[in-house]
């Protein structure tokens, strides 16, 4: 059955790119509501933005969604991954600024708070998007592919010049809480050489060594080092789950990304939904529901860093 959060969940912090303080509340919502953001600081006009693929503006550094009135909210990928990874299908997210708080740079604080509040079952079946044929998109930087599969499985490959990251690959079946146990605590990362350029472009204004992994050559500058030896590729998989959640329902298929990012994953969803015979939307049977990312997750499985 579909779910929502048991009660409101509150967060406050700073936007990674804007550097602005922000408060956010994840509220219960009825069946078939989906995930919808509400800009509580916007008093006139339409301030609601559905978290859907066709509301996204393709961006290399974060996921930004915008409604027809031009109201937007950005850096939604971590909270979207947390909701998908905890098996939450419906929520109204009230936010008093243009960007989701970065917290520690991972999805773990969102996951821990959602799990502590609990998930409520609703009286409606889960609808899933079953991938029937393979779609693939390419850019000069990399590619992404989505094909048929059981449940949601993922392969990801990255390649960075800095030896602290280098080449990393990982494959996971995201069933039965794998996201919570294996991915949710992995933090966003960047190269020290990119920080000045991002800030000159008005980005990463709220980034610190406490909410991002910063590397310089073979050195990890962030105090305490890495949470996982392959934290970078794990975070890329976390981002991919959050971006795939913009499909509007759990996906049954296999995702593969090679040097992929937010824009490529959104291009992939656009390609999927532009291929009418490439997918079908249907009710999820109990056996399939038991294999979805949030099924069977327990609070004690959340990593202790959150």
UniProtKB/TrEMBL annotation:
Q: Which GO terms describe its molecular function?
A: metal ion binding; UDP-3-O-acyl-N-acetylglucosamine deacetylase activity
Per its Swiss-Prot or TrEMBL entry, what cofactor is needed?
Zn(2+)
- Enzyme class, spelled out: hydrolase
Binding positions for Zn(2+) per the UniProt entry: 78, 235, 239
Q: Which UniProt keywords apply?
A: Hydrolase, Lipid A biosynthesis, Lipid biosynthesis, Lipid metabolism, Metal-binding, Zinc
Q: Where is the active site?
A: 262 (proton donor)
* Reactions catalysed, as given in the entry: a UDP-3-O-[(3R)-3-hydroxyacyl]-N-acetyl-alpha-D-glucosamine + H2O = a UDP-3-O-[(3R)-3-hydroxyacyl]-alpha-D-glucosamine + acetate
Taxonomy, superkingdom: Bacteria
GO annotation terms (biological process): lipid A biosynthetic process
> Can you name a GO cellular component term?
membrane
> Pathway listed for it?
Glycolipid biosynthesis; lipid IV(A) biosynthesis; lipid IV(A) from (3R)-3-hydroxytetradecanoyl-[acyl-carrier-protein] and UDP-N-acetyl-alpha-D-glucosamine: step 2/6
Enzyme Commission number(s): 3.5.1.108
- State its role: Catalyzes the hydrolysis of UDP-3-O-myristoyl-N-acetylglucosamine to form UDP-3-O-myristoylglucosamine and acetate, the committed step in lipid A biosynthesis.
Q: Which family does it belong to?
A: Belongs to the LpxC family.
What this protein is called in its record is UDP-3-O-acyl-N-acetylglucosamine deacetylase
């Amino acid at each position: 059955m579909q779910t929502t959060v048991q009660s409101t969940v509150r967060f406050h912090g700073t936007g990674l790119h804007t550097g602005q303080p922000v408060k956010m509340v994840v509220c219960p919502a009825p069946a078939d509501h989906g995930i919808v953001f509400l800009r509580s600081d916007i008093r006139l006009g339409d301030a609601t933005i559905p978290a859907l693929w066709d509301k996204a503006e393709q961006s290399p550094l974060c996921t930004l969604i915008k409604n027809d009135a031009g109201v937007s909210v950005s850096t939604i990928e971590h909270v979207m991954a947390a909701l998908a990874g905890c098996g939450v299908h419906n929520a109204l997210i009230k936010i008093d600024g243009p960007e989701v708080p970065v917290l520690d740079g991972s999805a773990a604080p969102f996951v821990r708070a959602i799990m502590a509040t609990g998930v409520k079952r609703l009286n409606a079946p889960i609808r899933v998007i079953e991938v029937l044929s393979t779609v693939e998109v390419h850019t000069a930087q990399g590619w992404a592919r989505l094909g048929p599969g059981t449940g949601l499985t993922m392969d990801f490959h990255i390649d960075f010049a800095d030896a602290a990251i280098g080449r990393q690959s990982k494959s996971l079946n995201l069933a039965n809480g794998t996201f919570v146990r294996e991915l949710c605590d992995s933090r966003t990362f960047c190269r020290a050489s990119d920080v000045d350029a991002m800030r000159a472009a008005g980005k990463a204004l709220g980034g610190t060594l406490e909410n991002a992994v910063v590397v310089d050559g073979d050195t990890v500058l962030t105090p305490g080092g890495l949470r996982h030896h392959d934290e970078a590729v794990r975070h890329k998989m976390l981002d991919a789950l959050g971006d795939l959640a913009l499909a509007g329902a759990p996906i049954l298929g296999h995702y593969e990304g090679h040097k992929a990012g937010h824009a490529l994953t959104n291009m992939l969803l656009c390609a999927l939904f532009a291929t009418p015979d490439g997918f079908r939307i249907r009710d999820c049977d109990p056996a399939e529901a038991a294999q979805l990312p949030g099924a069977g997750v327990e609070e004690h499985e959340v990593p202790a860093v959150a």
